């Protein structure tokens, strides 16, 4: 089926094909040992990420959705607050706002599928607490 906006890019498929054996091996190694949650490999990942990002802590979570929900919560965003988010995005970009009781304010996208930043100023109100740019399909929102 041909969609106007393709949701699966060949770059994802090429990456998976290039690293297939490594990915399957790492997955099977953890699965076969039952080391899926709060084990040495997770701790090693968190420590490595914290060092790489030059922060004191890093926490691995179950999904990108979990990461977004917890990030919005950590910022203290909640009921009565508004967050601007692109209208063309994965559901998690909006769910993380709603899950914390805030209101998503949708901004249109340009032809490149990224938020139309020329519209930002007119959408900002005293209730606006954040803007979530979505860097879509490897393209950087600017």
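Sequence proposed for the structure above (142 residues):
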């Amino acid at each position: 089926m041909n969609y106007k906006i393709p949701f699966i890019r060949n770059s994802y498929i090429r990456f998976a094909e290039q690293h297939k054996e490594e990915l399957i091996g790492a997955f099977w190694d953890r699965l076969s040992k039952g080391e899926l949650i709060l084990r040495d490999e997770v701790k090693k990942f968190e420590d490595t990420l914290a060092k790489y990002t030059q922060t004191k802590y890093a926490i691995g979570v179950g999904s990108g959705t979990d990461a977004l929900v917890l990030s919005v919560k950590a910022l203290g965003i909640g009921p009565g607050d508004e967050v601007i988010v692109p209208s063309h995005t994965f559901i998690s970009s909006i769910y993380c706002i709603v899950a914390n009781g805030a209101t998503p304010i949708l901004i249109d996208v340009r032809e490149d599928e990224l938020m139309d930043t020329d519209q930002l100023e007119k959408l900002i109100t005293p209730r606006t607490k954040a803007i979530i740019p979505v860097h879509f399909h490897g393209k950087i929102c600017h």
